[in-house]
Amino acid sequence: xxxxxxxxxxxxxxxxxxxxxxxxxxxxxxxxxxxxxxxxxxxxxxxxxxxxxxxxxxxxxxxxxxxxxxxxxxxxxxxxxxxxxxxxxxxxxxxxxxxxxxxxxxxxxxxxxxxxxxxxxxxxxxxxxx
Length: 130
Description:
The protein is of the alpha+beta class.
């Protein structure tokens, strides 16, 4: 509740980076566990490549893969053109790499408590007279 009330700063464990999955990474890894870069590589058998960006978060991408009908990076397959290039293959970003994330304030418990305190005397009088 404290995190939703105050908005906290989330950092990676032991000073490591946070890996935020993008829609192309999917939702779960092996065994229906939360997706991580390591679990993504285990599930797909493909290697991720780190891409540093000066302006904006760095990325973990996978190269030369097509997207399937659900928008996920698929294993290599499909058709090749006469010159040997795989059709539909592209570099797909899978994860954002961030040092820290500020969680926005979702609740205002202080305001709710003040409103409930202001209504309390009226509720007591209404119950006592009625």
